[in-house]
Design goal:
This protein has 199 residues and is mainly α. It contains nine helices and no strands. Helix 5 packs across helix 6 and helix 7 packs antiparallel against helix 9. The termini are far apart.
């Protein structure tokens, strides 16, 4: 089998910006309310394992493939608790990484973004099929994700309200800037709206 290489994509700046966004955007409360998986390592490590396997298949180093697969396996078995959401997130990340690896293996000449979108489409199709024939239906998965997003919102609102209560000059601040008085309620409304969109 002849090995073909993907076209060279220039721009480390774009890649570094994308990685920074991938790591830091989920820590914004509104994004944590919108994005089901906030632990980006759960998505990144299996994807790297898939890339390392494809690289090994194309003639790269076996050591990197073994190392990344071992890290991904360790992450899948050790990260998080065994809640329904954690199991759903692990399954999604492994399915997405596997789809990405297959797309890279069978269609290496396409640009990276096109391969990523192709992997996402494949994963959505497989997830839909699994919801139809598997033990977790789409409505159960939606309920699990909804409960997780609401838990995050509650956790963030508790932190925000605690900070407000511990701020001695909060009453003076709200007297000077009346819009601050509505800040907690508005934040809660935003988080709820983002969570509904996320589900």
């Amino acid at each position: 089998m002849a090995v073909t290489t993907a076209p060279s994509e220039r721009g480390w700046g774009k890649l570094l910006l994308a990685i920074a966004a991938f790591l830091f955007v989920p820590s914004i409360p509104q994004m944590a309310a919108l994005l089901p998986i906030e632990q980006t390592t759960m998505l990144f490590v299996p994807a790297m394992a898939a890339c390392a396997l494809v690289g090994w298949w194309a003639g790269g180093r076996a050591f990197l493939a073994v190392a990344w697969v071992a890290i991904a396996a360790l992450l899948a078995t050790r990260m998080g608790t065994n809640t329904a959401f954690d199991n759903l997130a692990r399954g999604w990340s492994l399915l997405l990484a596997g789809s990405f690896g297959l797309v890279c293996l069978f269609n290496p000449r396409r640009p990276l973004f096109a391969r990523a979108l192709g992997a996402l489409v494949i994963t959505l199709v497989l997830a839909t099929i699994m919801c139809l024939v598997g033990p977790v239906s789409a409505s159960q998965a939606s309920k699990i994700v909804s409960e997780e997003l609401m838990r995050r919102n509650t956790e963030w609102m508790t932190t925000l309200n605690t900070v407000i209560l511990q701020t001695k000059d909060w009453a003076a601040l709200t007297a000077k800037i009346p819009a601050l008085a509505d800040f907690p309620a508005e934040t809660e409304r935003q988080l709820t709206a983002f969570s509904q969109a996320g589900v």
